[in-house]
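User: Teach me something about this protein's shape.
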Amino acid sequence: MNTCALCSTELKLTNTPTFVSGKLSDGGEICIDCLKKVNSVNPNVALKIEKYPLVEIQKLFSEIE
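Assistant: First, the predicted structure itself:
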């Protein structure tokens, strides 16, 4: 089973973003909740999440904490 690259939640039909909007450039996937968190931090990144690798998303969160 696939898990969210950020929070390690098991990805299921109900918590996986549709139309590959949760796929990262390095092949990882994030859940809907994590995608919402990215959107709340930086909507521009969330809109183009497929262009960012996991390390960039983690860096984004570390800057706000």
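Now, about its shape. The chain has a mean pLDDT of 91. The two ends are 30 Å apart (CA to CA). If you'd like, I can walk through any region in more detail.
User: That's plenty for now, thanks!
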